[in-house]
Specification:
Its cofactor is Mn(2+); Mg(2+). Belongs to the RimK family. With 301 residues, the protein is of the alpha+beta class. It contains nine helices and 16 strands. It has three domains: 95 residues, Rossmann fold, CATH 3.40.50.20; 63 residues, Dna Ligase, domain 1, CATH 3.30.1490.20; 105 residues, ATP-grasp fold, B domain (D-amino Acid Aminotransferase, Chain A, domain 1, 2-Layer Sandwich), CATH 3.30.470.20. Helix 2 packs antiparallel against helix 3. The chain binds adenosine-5'-triphosphate and magnesium ion (MG) (2 copies).
Length: 301
């Protein structure tokens, strides 16, 4: 097949692995930097120009769009979809997964286990927000946080109220969430390909940190998950419309709860922790599923 890997940096571990996996299965794969693409809006003849040439109609595209360039990256991907290219993850699904509020609403609608969560624009009534959660301790998150920055634990009612008010003072959108204490600073990353969980790891925070992020000094090891955790991860991927993603779960007293779904999961941590060739499983999925124009929306919305 003739494949495209849409990414900004071809030297990242994940991207090198995807290129290697495709090549060793006998495919051609071009790396396309979406920020260097020009989108040609012409009636009935969508094209993308890249490095002075028109991009061909690839058999499939693997989008790896960073959170900071979602807007332009998904526009380029949408254009490829309009040309009939099969996307592993389609543009609308990536956009929806980037919006935490929209994601949680979609997951809730499908009955996926979630931490009790309240979104607030106005934060003057901090006590009311805390009442809705069931009181402190709570987790307070900035809507646009990443890598564990912007995730704060409000241990007591007083502390939680001041944190909520402080964020209100600088006019940022926040969500307030039930603190899953019993998770013990650990979360489970499930890599979903198609309708299967292909690899799972447990991430543990640095001693004394409730956040399990590797970027915050956490560690990872492989882990076995329960059938309920497996169906939660697959259900979350399906609700988001993502064929390839990382679903992060917490083990709560009321069963597995989904924290977030990542449409460009990193491969380094998971492949090192589990020894599983995730990139190969991704290419295998593409071989079995890529068809011209096979998307839910064909770039229509
Ligand atoms: N409700 C919660 N209860 C217990 N621990 C939580 C809760 N929410 C988050 N955490 C811990 O904090 C960590 C960071 O939170 P989260 O994943 O929501 O934000 P982020 O890591 O900044 O976002 P991203 O993963 O997109 O970079 C999680 O991995 C988890 O270990
Ligand atoms: Mg996040
Ligand atoms: Mg996270």
């Amino acid at each position: 097949m003739n494949l495209a890997l849409m990414c900004r940096n071809a030297d990242l571990y994940s991207h090198k692995r995807i290129v290697d996996a495709a090549t060793s299965r006998g495919h051609e794969i071009d790396v396309v930097d979406h920020l260097r693409c020009y989108i040609n809006i012409t009636s009935l003849r969508p094209t993308v120009r890249y490095r002075g040439e028109e991009l061909p109609v690839f058999d499939a595209v693997i989008p790896r769009i960073g959170a900071s360039v979602t807007f332009y990256g998904t526009a380029v991907l949408r254009q490829l979809e309009m040309m009939g290219v099969y996307p592993v993850n389609e543009s609308v699904a990536i956009s929806r997964s980037r919006d935490k509020l929209r994601s949680l609403q979609l997951l809730a609608r499908k009955g996926i286990g979630l931490p009790v969560t309240v979104f607030a624009h106005r934060t003057s009534q901090a006590d009311e927000i805390l009442d809705m959660i069931g009181g402190a301790p709570v987790i307070i998150k900035l809507l646009e946080g990443t890598q564990g920055i912007g995730v704060v634990l409000g241990e007591t009612q007083k502390a939680a109220e001041s944190i909520i008010q402080a964020f209100g003072g600088v006019n940022t959108n926040i969500l307030v969430q039930e603190f899953i204490k019993e998770a013990g600073g650990e979360d489970i990353r499930c890599i979903v390909v198609g309708e299967k969980v292909v690899a799972t790891m447990k991430r543990k925070g640095k001693e004394g940190d409730f956040r399990s992020n590797i970027h915050r000094g956490g560690t990872a090891e492989k882990v076995k998950i329960t059938p309920q955790e497996r169906s939660t991860a697959v259900g979350a991927a399906k609700a988001m419309g993502l064929n390839f993603c990382g679903v992060d779960l917490l083990r709560s007293n009321h069963g597995p709860v989904v924290m977030e779904v990542n449409s460009s999961p990193g491969l380094e941590g998971i492949e090192r922790a589990t020894g599983i060739d995730v990139a190969d499983k991704l290419i295998d999925f593409i071989e079995k599923n890529a068809r011209p124009g096979k998307t839910k929306t064909r770039g229509k919305g």
